[in-house]
Write a structure and sequence with these properties.
With about 650 residues, this protein is mostly beta strands. Helix content is about 10%, strand content about 35%. It has a 23-stranded parallel beta sheet that branches. Strands 6-7-11-15-14 form a 5-stranded antiparallel beta sheet, with no helix packed on it.
Length: about 650
Amino acid sequence: MVISAPTKPAWLNFTDNGNGTALLTGTPSNTEIGFHTITLQVSDGTLNVEQNFTMSVDDVAFLDGITLKCTGCPFNSAALVTVESQPGEVGNYEFPAGLVSFEVDSSTNPSALVSVFYNNINQLDNFIYRKYGPTTPGDSNTADWYTFNNVTIGLDTLNGQSVVKASLTLSDGELGDDTGVDGSIIDPGGIALDTTTPPTPPPTGSYSLGGGVNTECTNQGNTVSSACHAGEQTFTGEVEVKENASVAQATFEDDVDNKGMISNSTVGPDATLTGGKLTGTIINEGIIADVNFVGAKLSGGTLSGTVMNNSKVGGVIKDVQLAGGMVLKGGRLGGEISGDPDNPALITAAKILPGSVLSNVRISPTVRLPKDVVLGPGVILPSTPPTLADFGLELEDIANLDAEALGELEPAVFGTLSAEEIKLIPPEAFAALEPAQIAELPKEALEGLTTEQFEQMPVETLDGLTSENMGGLSPEVITEMTPEHLDALDAKEFKAMPSEDVSKLFVNFDDAKITPQNAEKLVPKDWQLDVETGALTAPVGAKVTFQKLSPSTSATSTTPGTSTSTNVGLPQVANLGTDFGVGGGGTPLIEDSKRSLEDKNLENLVLSQDEYGILRVESVEYPDVLYTFIPDVDNAIVVDTEKMPIGNMKGR
């Protein structure tokens, strides 16, 4: 008996094992997404028997908290969107996972089966599927919220855990598609609950979810080390949820040490839940501390420590008491939120919902307050301009930052820092500095960055520097830059800097590390760079900066004709022994000046610069005559030497 596959896609390999069995193997590429016909044939040399079947190659999109699968069809795009981003009144509906928007390529098949897996929701409720879009596909005038009925919502298994899945049957140009018949299906929507409908009662009796999910949480004792669905079970003793473990549909009457995830559960009045992730709907009657909330709703009880609302589905924390000194960060907050009048909690990087009532809390500058929020007693609003205190920080906190703590600071915090405060931060903390954080540093503050701090900073952090603050880097830090640092800089932002800042960076590069070729990609429009010598040419009228001599605190001045000496303070001045070029490359400035004098037949004047930067002009004819100048490097402007008789060469 011989088995063969006369019809199959090219990427699928067929092997006859010679024992009445055969094997099909292969790895399709993205171009193979779709439906493929396969024909298997069995022959004994006399009779041939064929079996035909269709295989689908599916496209999968992974979003934060949601997995999409299109059976036999490719996604053109997929993204999470918020309910608030859609027009119209949403009505009495809540969307526990927000909305997901996707576009399916239906050019080869006008219909599509799309499965939406809600990774963080593992209990069925009275879910319906709601979307905003044209009720007549392609006609934007008919856009409104509506319930999409061509959907099946149930439980399925994803990565060993039971999750809610919505299976949508869509057709190009029919209800559910935002556009007409055009070869693509666009469908933003999500599972929703009608808040006027009572919730589904919890299941009773014995049942099985399958898929490897343990429904007998009690068998794990006081330690949960895998995924389990408690089915409204009550834990009466202390519980530890291990890393990568999860508990759903539980009530906790005693303390919980959570290193995993807890969903759709209740924390009793005598319980304290500490750590880990919370998702779904959490009812708090006790204390919740130091958690990362990623679900739909957390309400009631007391919050303590640092509570992060990182929900990607528009989850809300509402009607909570905030313990003294705690930090509530991110996401949406609503209802009645009150803190300790003697030690107000800090609310930061959050959106307060309309109609909320706040009392005894500090509001950071990154909180969005609606017009109709009620500010009760003890509410501390941010200063203008913002200060460290507005973010609950003091100088001592800045001086004691480690890398983890610095990385957790909101970018807006850096906008309040001064150069002296930057210097207080331990260098090792800069190992966690993010591009979004350095982008907020004022130019004047960036001047405080030390070479030790710069050495600890990830190279990719420099991508956050902007045209407004990049020029604040000190010459000492600029000298430490390597070609890798230049590659990390945003060239568009570099070129958009004021001309004096552009030249400041160019002339202070270390020519032993940076070549003109390395710097060429940063040259702004209308500037020129000689890649052989490194000399720069800036447009006429541009304000420019030169390399400066190392600062000197004082110099000794002797009054002519006397023996009186005086110590005088001198500003930092240009090093005329360098040129206006990459790393000071090119012809030294003082040589350019000498050449200008020669062009005007003033060879009898001799120029030199002493160790303090003072420019000395001596006459060969009159050796007793000495003129001294301090070059005004802060107001150097490129001029056209055809219009100004003494100066640098045209365009220099």
